[in-house]
């Protein structure tokens, strides 16, 4: 009797098996998401953020929100979004991940305080002692020592003053990049010109910009410098002699390498000594047959020279040290610049 009762059950099981296999269980596992190194404070009006997400089956997309407004959806890792802040204040960044079944992760949030530098810096350039003949145009007709004064300001913080100096001489045209690191909301920098002689006669240009901490640049300020000196006009007066001093000073140029293959700042050391004291230090950079005078300070030992592909070829640095008695010594170093 028991065997007859089990036959219908076995037949029913076989019938069910013939109709198909068991159905897969639905995916109900939520993905996981996290924010990666998002700063709590920023001083720019844009920010790129990144998230990491994982799921037992697979992540379909990661959503980014500022407050409740969705600002980006990234379907593929690395999951990133670019945020733009219209004004200063506090913003709540929220991120969530979604898998293929539509399961949504628990949201992760980060509060970001924005104090953005939205204003470009300003720059002003003057040449004290030179005659201002027109806006931005100065003329020098008397020998002497001159300097260019740069005043920069920003609403938050400055980073640098940079630009180019273009010399137009009888020997040719040469462009020298310039850059000076600065800080604070305002800064005043002085660019000393070499002792001027008739070799510099001509029209030269100096273009400068201030750069703030956010990377914003001021409008370029261009100064035209016209030098018209008499050929027979002497330069600086001879130093007062020191009675009995006939010993020449010593000067040495130390370079870190004899060949430069990458653009950047090239640091050289100039070492001087004298039994009484070195009173003046002059130099020149010879590039492609053009000699560019340099203004040097005998109190300094290290100088940074910006090097670009414009220097390609042999470059010779010549330095002359003088003491109060007029004794002098000269040293030179030649390097090869090969920047692709």
From TrEMBL:
Which PROSITE patterns does this chain map to? Answer: PROKAR_LIPOPROTEIN (PS51257)
Task: Write the record's keywords in alphabetical order, separated by commas.
Answer: Signal
Q: Which positions make up the signal peptide?
A: 1-20
Q: Does the keyword Secreted apply?
A: no
Q: Which InterPro entries match?
A: Ig-like_fold (IPR013783)
Q: Where are the transmembrane segments?
A: none
Q: What is this protein called?
A: Ig-like domain (Group 3)
Highest lineage ranks of the organism? Bacteria, Thermotogati, Deinococcota, Deinococci, Deinococcales
